[in-house]
Write a structure and sequence with these properties.
The structure holds two protein chains of two kinds.
Chain A (H helix, E strand, L loop, with lengths): L16 H20 L11 H32 L12 H18 L11 H26 L3 H25 L4 H12 L7 H20 L1 H6 L4 H6 L4 H23 L5 H13 L3 H25 L8 H22 L6
Chain B lengths: L4 E10 L2 E11 L4 E5 L6 H9 L5 E6 L2 E2 L5 H7 E4 L11 H6 L3 H4 L2 H4 L5 H11 L15 H14 L4 E5 L7 H16 L3 E5 L3 H7 L2 E6 L2 E7 H4 L2 H8 L19
């Protein structure tokens, strides 16, 4: 099939209707596969209703996590003007993971596995993850108020990621005696949506909608941010304000996904980058299609994890890493080989 | 009638050092003001200060309105910047680059009714810069000269009447340079005010109405191009002597559109 956006003579066009429809159909087919495929058949006597509900929750969670991460990735890649950037560089994923670890620790050691302040125990982890992501966000915004520019943001994100990852590793090492807790820590770090229920679906739905809607409405601003910061300013973008808000929406999208699905690696990096040759760089098309494709991709990965021939299945984040890392390396090599534009 | 653009005592400091030191200038509609000077004289920094892209002291007014009082969108509709090269990411089409110019108009709903339609403004700018044939090409695959014309088209599509060019002829062959100056003549005739950083003093003398000679951030002379490019000023700023000689003269053939 010919690529529609960079065809003969390096012409760039909007994605064809066939590509758009094909992507949407493929993504919804992934959801259907997610509902049907598993170790147990949906039509097995006596448990079809329960199984369908569990699968629906799992598929919805996977879809929303994947869509949110892919959308966040598309925005971050434009924000930092680097198609190989990912939401992780903001440190928000690491912050969310650390928050989830702390919430788990608090729940087990201080609350004895019960809820607190009217909050159900299973909701403490998402709330902790959200707090961790917001903490990362507040630090980012504070630094941005002192020093503008993508470099400051990138370096701050890197410092936060190192700090939060180190803190998570410290918590894991000091709780080695508590086997169950350690296992839960590992599930968060490696990405896991096997326990998703209606509450998790609702949480990730609210957070994804909260981040996705303003991002989709910002497609014009993101198109102008494809140029340099100076050019964007002279074209009428209040770059500082736009960047600050986009960081908030990216954090919300990432936090929602990490809170419910743990650290699902490479989705935000690979999906938008893989889509660009097919749908182009215009955010009016790229953003919604990244959401759809990211959702379908994670649902499909989750199905593969579910039917993997191991006793517990494979953690979702590890599986996406197996797929994403080679694709990323291929993209990196392709970018390195790209000829320098002639003068 | 106020000047198209007027700057008073404009200064930019980097780490206590004055990159631009108390420079005053003005340009009227229908005129080309050239900013000349040796390397590191502060020409591009002055241009960025005029656009409000770098922190500066002093005042800049556009058509009588203080630049600092204008919103980002108002500035974009008033002043357009044509950088030497664009850092646009790969894969963006020429049409999309030029369409970016309409951002400032789309964000101002109140003006939408009065503004010409976005599509016609973009099409007109592409035609003006002789780019209609390249509209679907990826910007990053164009030659340097073609990219420069795309950036000019984008500036025209903003609807701004004051255009600021940063070394627009650097790296261009003689035919592209002549096409650029033919375009500036057309823009001046249409009433645009142009400010351009130029390295070639011959171009300054041939095409500019007024000139500003900068050295180490300071204005050495501002006035008519002929008076600014005197032997005395050139010797003082560049440390070279001017020799009157017969130079090769060029003009575009009929095959150029």
């Amino acid at each position: 099939m010919a690529r529609p956006t960079r065809s003969s003579g390096d012409a760039v066009r909007a994605p064809s209707l066939g590509i758009v429809v094909g992507l949407i159909v493929a993504a919804f087919s992934c959801a259907a596969v997610g509902l049907v495929v598993g170790r147990a058949g949906l039509l097995d006597t006596g448990r079809d209703g329960l199984l369908l509900e569990l699968r629906a929750c799992r598929v919805a969670t996977a879809w929303l996590c994947g869509g949110a991460l892919a959308l966040a990735g598309a925005v971050v890649q434009t924000l930092f003007r680097n198609p190989l950037a990912s939401p992780e560089i903001l440190g928000v994923s690491s912050g969310a993971t650390l928050g989830a670890h702390l919430a788990l620790l608090f729940s087990v050691f201080w609350l004895g596995g019960n809820g607190a302040f009217g909050v159900a125990p299973e909701m403490l982890i998402p709330i902790g993850a959200t707090c961790g992501a917001l903490l990362a966000l507040l630090v980012l915004l504070a630094v941005m108020a002192l020093q503008e520019g993508p470099l400051a943001l990138l370096l701050t994100g890197y410092a936060l990621m190192s700090l939060f990852s180190g803190a998570s590793a410290f918590l894991t090492s000091v709780t080695q005696h508590a086997w169950e807790l350690n296992r839960a820590f590992a599930a968060l770090s490696q990405g896991d949506i096997s326990g998703a229920g209606p509450r998790q679906v609702l949480l990730v739905l609210i957070m994804t909608l909260g981040g996705a809607l303003p991002v989709l409405l910002s497609h014009d601003t993101l198109d102008v941010l494809l140029t340099s910061e100076d050019e964007a300013r002279t074209l009428g973008v209040d770059v500082t304000r736009a960047r600050s808000w986009l960081v908030v929406w990216v954090a919300l999208l990432t936090a929602g996904a990490v809170a419910v699905g743990g650290s699902v690696a490479f989705v935000g990096l690979v999906v938008p980058h893989a889509l660009r040759p097919w749908v182009g760089v215009r955010h009016r098309y790229l953003l919604p299609l990244a959401f759809v494709a990211g959702g379908g991709f994670v649902v499909l990965c989750d199905v593969a994890c579910r039917i993997a021939p191991t006793r517990q299945g494979i953690p979702l984040g590890i599986f996406t890493s197996f797929i994403g890392a080679p694709i990323f390396l291929r993209m990196l090599l392709k970018q390195l080989r790209r000829p320098v534009p002639h003068a | 009638m106020p000047n198209a653009l007027r700057a008073e005592q404009l200064s930019v400091h980097w780490d206590q050092r004055a990159a631009v030191d108390a420079v005053s200038l003005h340009v009227d509609y229908g005129q080309l003001l050239a900013i000349a000077g040796p390397n590191a004289a502060g020409k591009s920094t002055l241009l960025k200060a005029l656009l409000g892209l770098v922190p500066s002291s002093g005042t800049v007014s556009v058509a009588g309105a203080q630049l600092s009082q204008l919103s980002a969108a108002e500035r974009a509709r008033t002043l357009a910047y044509i950088p030497q090269r664009s850092a646009t990411m790969p894969g963006v089409s020429v049409l999309d680059v030029v369409s970016q110019a309409r951002y400032a108009h789309r964000t101002q709903r109140a003006r939408l009714g009065a503004a010409p339609s976005h599509a016609s403004a973009v099409a007109s700018a592409l035609e003006h810069a002789e780019l209609s044939q390249l509209a679907e090409r990826a910007f990053d695959t164009l030659s340097g000269g073609e990219q420069r014309r795309v950036l000019i088209a984008r500036a025209l599509a903003t609807g701004a009447r004051v255009l600021l060019f940063d070394e627009p002829t650097a790296g261009l062959d003689i035919a592209q340079v002549l096409r650029f100056f033919r375009l500036t003549e057309r823009l001046r005739a249409e009433g645009h005010a142009l400010i351009s950083v130029l390295h070639d003093l011959g171009d300054v003398r041939r095409h500019a109405d007024t000139a500003l000679l900068l050295d180490a951030g300071r204005c050495v002379q501002f006035g008519s191009a002929a008076s600014v490019l005197s032997s005395e000023h050139i010797a003082r700023v560049y440390g070279v002597h001017v020799h009157e000689s017969v130079a090769l003269d060029f003009s575009l053939e009929g095959r150029w559109p």
